[in-house]
Structure formats: structure tokens, C-alpha cells
Structure to design on (157 residues):
């Protein structure tokens, strides 16, 4: 059994779409970054790659590569799953915390779990999502950024 940790943060900006776990979330501001800046998906990828000993998202999808500008992060996630397959790792569980003041994410979780599970070819029960606010503290608390922490568990087959 292998365990990996992933963390990511992106700033919120006007004029960007908010995409979390591959799902567009209607919100006045969205996350800024080279790709679609899907902070949750990026943290999931880092947790999976970490557990498999395969580096991190920047190793495989450098943000200096124009090919990834505006890219759909679910493609990164599907690629990470292929890398895990090649190393004969199966995803046992993914547990995530998304930290944001707004919007409320609970209503979006079923869709986000489905989208993540589909990209990873696992049952949605293997993806667990939680949301926290930062109680008004720091940039996340002021609504200037969203962060995600993820732990992934893999088994060798
Ligand atoms: Zn990111």
C-alpha cells in the first residue's frame, strides 16, 4: 500500500471560470493559472503521483509549455491514471479538502465526485470530498484564493 499527499493553491480573478474537480461552478470569479487552474484536480494529481513515486504535476505538465495553456486539467488527471496503470497501481481511495470561503461546494460534490471518478476509472465511492472555509483568515479567508489538500491511497496489483 502507498500513500501520497497533494497540495495546491490558485488565486481568484475576475473574468475566469471557476472549475473544481472538472465541474464548472457558477461564480463571479474563477481561479487563475496557466491551465484551467482546477486546484482540486491538481492536488489529486500530485497525491496520486506522489503515492506512485512519479514526481509531481510540474514534472509531467510544465506550466512553461504553451501546449498546456488553458488546458482542461481532467486530461492531466487521465494521463496520471495511465502512468499509475503502467506501474500497476490501483487507486484505493482519494480524500480531499477544498478550502474556500465561497461558494458553498456541498451541492456540487456529487457532480465533482462523478467527474473525478470517471477520469480515474474508479467508483465514485472511492473519491471523498470535504469543504472548509478559512474562517475569514488570510488570503483564502478574504476570498482571494482557493486551496486544496488531498491524500491518495494506492495498492499494488
Ligand atoms: Zn494548480
Amino acid at each position: 500500500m502507498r500513500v501520497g499527499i497533494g497540495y495546491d493553491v490558485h488565486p481568484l480573478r475576475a473574468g475566469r471560470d471557476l472549475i473544481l474537480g472538472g465541474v464548472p461552478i457558477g461564480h463571479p470569479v474563477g481561479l487563475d493559472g496557466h491551465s484551467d487552474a482546477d486546484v482540486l484536480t491538481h492536488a489529486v494529481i500530485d497525491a496520486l503521483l506522489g503515492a506512485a513515486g512519479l514526481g509531481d504535476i510540474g514534472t509531467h505538465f510544465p506550466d512553461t509549455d504553451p501546449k498546456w495553456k488553458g488546458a482542461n486539467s481532467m486530461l492531466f488527471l487521465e494521463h496520471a491514471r495511465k502512468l499509475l496503470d503502467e506501474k500497476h497501481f490501483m487507486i484505493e481511495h482519494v480524500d480531499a479538502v477544498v478550502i474556500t470561503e465561497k461558494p458553498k461546494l456541498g451541492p456540487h460534490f456529487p457532480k465533482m465526485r462523478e467527474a473525478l471518478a470517471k477520469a480515474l476509472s474508479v467508483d465514485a465511492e472511492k473519491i471523498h470530498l470535504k469543504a472548509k472555509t478559512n474562517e475569514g483568515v488570510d488570503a483564502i479567508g478574504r476570498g482571494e484564493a482557493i486551496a486544496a489538500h488531498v491524500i491518495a491511497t494506492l495498492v499494488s496489483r
User: Anything to note?
Assistant: The pocket of zinc ion is lined by residues 8, 10, 33, 37, 39, 42 (CB under 6 Å). The chain has five helices and seven strands. The mean pLDDT is 96. The CA atoms of residues 6 and 47 lie 4 Å apart.
